[in-house]
Amino acid sequence: MTRRGASAGPTPGLCARASRGDPEWNTDRGWQTQVEAQGRQGKVSGGDVRGVRLYWCRLARRPAALVGTVVFLTIVLLAAIGPTISPYPPNEQDAEAPLEAPSGRHFFGTDQFGRDVFSRVLSGARGVVTVSGLGTAMAVAIGVFSGLFAGYQRGVRSEIITRVYDLLLCIPSLLLAMVLIASVGPSKVNIVLVVGILYTPNVGRVVRSVVLDLKSKEFVEAAKARKERRGYILFREILPNTLGPLMVESAMRFSYSIFLVASLGFLGLGVQPPASDWGLMVSDARDFLQLAPWMLLFPSAAIAALVIATNLMSDGLRQITAPAGSAG
Amino acid sequence: MLRVSDLSIEYTTEQAVLPAVRDVSLDLANGESLGIVGESGSGKSTLVMGALRYLPANGRVVAGSVHLKDQDLGELSAADLRRVWGGQVGIVYQNPLGALNPSMTVGRQLREVATWHLNMNKRQGDNLAREMLTKVSMPDPDSVLKRYPHQLSGGMLQRCIIAMALMTRPALLVMDEPTTALDVTTQAVVLDLIEELKAEFDAAILYITHDLGVVARICDRIAVMYAGEVVEIATTRELFARPRHPYSLRLLGCIPHFDLGPQKRSLLTIPGTIPRVNDLPPGCVFAPRCTFAHEQCLAASPPLVDIGAGRSSACLRWAEVPDLIDVAHSETDVLGRRSEEVPGTADLLVTADVCVDFKASGRSLEWRRHKGRVRAVGGVSAFLKLGQTLGVVGESGSGKTTFARAIIGLTERSDGSVRLRGHELAPGLEARSPQAVRDMSMVFQNPDASLNPRHTVGQAVGRPLSLFRRLRGKALEGEIERLLHVVQLPSDYRGRYPGELSGGEKQRVAIARACAADPAIVLCDEPLSALDVSVQGALMNLLMRLQSQMGTSFLFISHDLSAVQHMSDWIAVMYLGKIMELGPTAEVMRPPFHPYTEALLSAVPVADPDAVQEGIRLSGAVPSATHVPPGCRFHPRCPRCLGDQCRVEEPPWRAVAATHWVYCHILPEELASNQFGIREGHAASQREET
Fold first, then answer.
1. Peptide bond before A274: cis, by omega within 30 degrees of 0?
2. What is the pLDDT of residues B606-623, one digit of tens each?
3. Which range is most confident: A310-324, B291-305, B640-654?
4. Helix orientation angle between A29-40 and B503-515, rounded to the nearest 10 degrees
5. Across-strand partners of B392?
6. Contacts of A173 (CB under 8 A, 6+ apart)
7. Please, are residues A277 and A121 in contact by the beta-carbon 8 Å criterion?
8. Mean pLDDT lowest for which of A304-313, B257-266, B305-314?
9. Which of B54, B248, B293, B344 could form a disulfide with B243 if both were Cys (CB 3.0 to 4.6 A apart)?
10. What is the pLDDT of residues A219-258, one digit of tens each?
């Protein structure tokens, strides 16, 4: 006689039993059948855990994404509280102690002017995170609006928007950024604008593809049959459904924009000295590579850490929001 | 030949282990056909695939054994198992297009079976392939062999797959819902084929389906499954005459029968929902929904016992399970009278010669010939009376959905007029008055896509209320609750998202949303097609109750003739964009019929093994609107085609009675003399007597 009553499998604690590997629900015929079956007759819900707890559960099971998220949040936190915890003001020069190796006094050593590298990295974090964050936010804002309209309307205007996207995507981003910054001059505002313009097409494409997919769905038809205005349909019916892919794409764009901002700084097109921009620090460090490798090492490591962490985080976001089934 | 003993299968998922199939024992003799019937989630596919050891990565057999011809399948190695699958088992799947490799010709795929499993060379393989295609009555087998799967129609593809499955003369043929994706007339042809092949090939057949009508035709014995267990096994005749398990009883009661009486009865429903497989009740798995349950039923799960004469039942009280007729009589009520010609009933909606053209895209020669347009609906004139239901029946390509969309304005009509209460409606929505927009709403086929996944039920239902009836605050909440109550959903569903609801519940929400603004007409576009049998019955009851309470008129579109005739006062039969027959339900279902109606009635599977249907079969496939034949558009497939007259001249719209029209050249008297429709068996006539 088989077991009955309470589920045959244990459901201990927050996350039920771990599974071998990571079953991709979409391709899992067995689960799909059950979900469909329960979808047609019983309740769908993924099980005993749902909503935010479900996401938490899935995140916990993906170490890479967890690490990425933790590192990302740490860096953002440090960027925020940077000035209060830096041991030295970032621009304070100490003629007595140039090019000192990392030690108890200077965690990351000093540069050629005796400035504390650790403090400069902390203050640089603030610059990078702010500029990238604002640039990404701008890209998301413009991308969402243009993507919604490009996807929904069929006609000349949406074709134009889509072709503009294609154009911007064709040109190598760093090259375009260089050209733009060179023409308008390097300043924080300009960099934010450039990042925004450069990454709008990526966001716009993602939103547009979701809109194209949802346009023919019956709930949109039902709204049309109620003679709802276009604005209502786009913003109240369709937009909420784009949030998943949008979040993922935004995180990815953030990661790319950090790299872009750092590259611009490296090329001297970012914020100007004596500001402590990571890219600029890396560039300066080239001349002292043999004497003081720590000048290169720590800013590069910081850039790498933030980019990789954001990447892992966005990958994790994609995985935990992607599975088929429950929207709630 | 096939012996399944105490088989249990589990699926391992992220959240829990699901015991999908529990303790199933079946026997299948040589040459016998066993139907496995159940709704979704009953585990029928899992059972069969598990028995063959063909489960996905996270499924496994945890107990029991399966013996195919005395060979224990559990003990075979992977290589041996593959040999068994190829050589002794043939499988026919639900989706014919998905079962064939799109990049290889059909001939090559058939040949592959021969060369792999039968050790033939290419030429012998080709010959065998041709022979098999001839056996499955494929017209012009040579040309079919050279074609790719996407160039063939669904019916032809399914025949190819059956040919492929039978090539190795398997001992066991497994058919997993092979005709569900096909049109009714095509389905009838394929079922005919299966019956013929049964006799010729002497293979044992395992037929999985949810459709009791199909099972009544094809299968010798039936096993009814519920939530992973087999609850009853009986011969077909015995099961339909006197089911011995409460679930089988109720399942039979959910099916609308062809009843031409003047009353509209409700259907039996099964209260509650199928239990989640990881949350099963102790005791009998059906007990929570069973009206005959006792304490003993709740204590321990009843095993499947032999109750004599080869029957088995998993009910402790099998001997006391009443007759279906008694239960139906006591638990269903009359929901209204089928209105025939009620003098003075106003025509609420009248359409005259509505045409819908689509611009053809692409520049191939075909399109140019048609001057760049496809006429999906070619002149439909119909009417909908106040408080009544017009049922529109047709197969794919008949234009019924397009017609409904043209009425509501989602698709702009190219010609003709639509009048609501005498006022002409504009083709598109923008030009319509707010009152006209409010007066019509639509319920769609796909419950998953009908609701916005990011809106709660309350938001979905509340939108028409706030938009059309301008309700706010407390009044709005109160009205939402009332609507949920009307569609029999608990009021705490307001805060739920569609992802948390079942298909039937989602459709109820869609119906609530459609009725929220008190429309005069609700257009239902195949609202039941995606749902299980018992859920269909419950929703049909709901719609009929709504009509009698609120006086709404329905335009009910479906390909399912039995559902349509159950719910409708009037029926319109559509084919390729035109109405072939229009009249009151009772008259349309009785001779004289239009030949197409006659063919539909012959083809529809009736859940009664004793029913007698005319054996009219249509040749060819359901055509598409790009190639409308001249003259009477039905003439290429019409078994009663008169010849040149039908080929050249368009038929007249002939009145057979005061409100019954047939679009045919043949005179009604001639039609009436040699048609008889469906004659139901003993059980049905008993029902009519009560």
1. yes
2. 888 877 787 788 877 777
3. B640-654
4. 40
5. B557, B572
6. A198, A256, A260
7. no
8. B257-266
9. B248
10. 999 999 999 998 999 999 999 899 889 988 999 999 999 9
| A325 vs B455, B464, B499: nearest CB | B499
Classify strands B33-37 and B204-209 as parallel, antiparallel or unpaired.
parallel
Q: Is B630:B648 a contact under the CB 8 Å cutoff?
A: yes
Cβ proximity of B161 and B192 under 8 Å: no
CB B158 within 8 A of CB B92: yes
Give SS3 for A33.
Answer: helix
Residue A328 confidence (pLDDT) above 60? no
Query: Average pLDDT for residues B81-85, to the nearest whole number?
Result: 82
Sheet arrangement for strand B2-12: B17-28, B2-12, B59-68, B71-72
Nearest CA to B661 out of B570, B576, B575 is that of B570
Asked if pLDDT for residue B371 goes beyond 50, the answer is yes
**CA B653 – CA B619 distance, rounded (Å):** 25
Q: How far is Cα B215 from Cα B609, in angstroms, rounded to an integer?
A: 9
- For residues A38 and B38, the answer to whether their CB atoms sit within 8 Å is no
- Checking if the pLDDT of B690 tops 50, the result is no
**How many Cβ atoms from other residues are within 10 Å of residue B187's Cβ?**
23
pLDDT at B366: 52
Tokens of A55: 């996401």
CB distance B505 to B530 below 8 Å: no
Whether the full predicted model's pTM is greater than 0.90, yes or no, is no
Task: Indicate the burial class of A50 (C-beta count within 10 angstroms; 0-12, 13-18, 19 or more).
Answer: middle
AA letter at B484: L
Chain B residue at shortest CA distance from A31? B13
Tens of pLDDT, residue by residue over A137-154, are 999 999 999 999 999 988
CA distance to A100, A240, A282, per residue, from A289 (Å): 13, 50, 10
Contacts of B8 in chain A (CB under 8 A): 2
Could you tell me which residue, B690 or B648, shows the higher pLDDT? B648
The C-alpha atoms of residue B439 and residue B449 are separated, in whole angstroms, by 23
A219, A228, A230, A242: best to mutate for the B interface, most B CBs within 10 A: A219
Reported ipTM: 0.82
Among candidates A9, A228, A327 on the partner chain, residue whose Cβ is nearest the Cβ of B16: A9
C-alpha span between A25 and B56 (Å, rounded): 12
Chain-centre distance for alpha carbon A19:
28
Query: B91 has which bridge partners?
Result: B174
Q: How many CB pairs under 8 A join A and B?
A: 199
Residue A33: pLDDT above 70?
no
C-alpha A33/C-alpha A25 separation (Å) is 11
SS3 B222: strand
Sign of the torsion formed by the C-alpha atoms of B81, B87, B92 and B98: positive
Residue with tokens 């079953």: A23
Residue B421 identity: R
Residue B505, both tokens: 């519940």
Min Cα–Cα distance to chain A from B505, Å: 9
Report the pLDDT value the prediction gives residue B670, as an integer from 0 to 100: 79
DSSP code string of B512-552: HHHHTT--SEEEEESTTTTS-HHHHHHHHHHHHHHHHHH--
Determine whether the interchain pair A40/B13 forms a contact, defined as Cβ–Cβ distance below 8 Å: no
CB–CB of A127/A135 below 8 Å? no
